[in-house]
Amino acid sequence: MVSPSIEVIEKSSNRITVKFDNIPRQYVNALRRLSISEVPTLAIDDVVMLENSSVMHDEALAHRLGLIPLRTDPGRFVMPHECDCKSTLGCSKCRVLLVLDSEASEKTKVVTSGELVSEDELVKPVSKDIPIIVLAPSQKLKFEAYARLGIGKDHAKWQPTSASIVKDGKDENESILIIESNGALAPEEILTLAMDKMSSKIKNFKQSIQTK
């Protein structure tokens, strides 16, 4: 009998490719689904608009801000509903404040993610060049934004992957899992956290059966 095996065949800063040999494809696909839907990342979830004289409504701006990927350290924060602060405003354990204060003077100005100032030096947009809005001369944008942990099955803005694919390998019993990160987490972190989620679900299922 051939033993199951797992091999990393490619890894870069934003992509990991793993070969699963003699492991049922449904388990590999479960990892794919968990990496998309249940690995937590930070995303802007609440925006307090202090001044907005642009042509874009506050709600549209808030939605756009939520889709900017933020670098996330999964061990430093807890989900809002699990935090012992029990506050709707949150605390340093469950939220990060980012602020922006920008104005176009005499020329049209493109406001980018690089202008977001975070209270946490590690929690920043994955790129400084993501456009937020174009301000015409004399227009101004000022707000406070709060980032919180969440998961992809609740909203797409919390998905850590830009792609998560399972395909057939060269041999009959091989499956290839490819995970591409949007930058919030390293691809190997996404895969490891997905594995932890699967292990936890199996453990909870086992305990549920044993108690009945």
How many structural domains does the protein architecture include? 2
Main sheet: strand order? 1-2-10-9
3D shape: elongated
What proportion of the residues form beta strands (DSSP E)? 25-35%
Q: Helix and strand succession?
A: EEHEHEEEEEEEH
Task: List segments where confidence is low: pLDDT < 50 over at least 5 consecutive residues.
Answer: none
- End-to-end Cα distance, whole Å, is 35 Å
CATH topology of the largest domain: RNA Polymerase Alpha Subunit, Chain A, domain 2
Structural class: alpha+beta
CATH superfamily of the largest domain: DNA-directed RNA polymerase, insert domain
- DSSP helix fraction: 10-25%
Rounded mean pLDDT is 94
Total helical elements: 3
Let me know the number of strands.
10
**Radius of gyration, rounded?**
21 Å
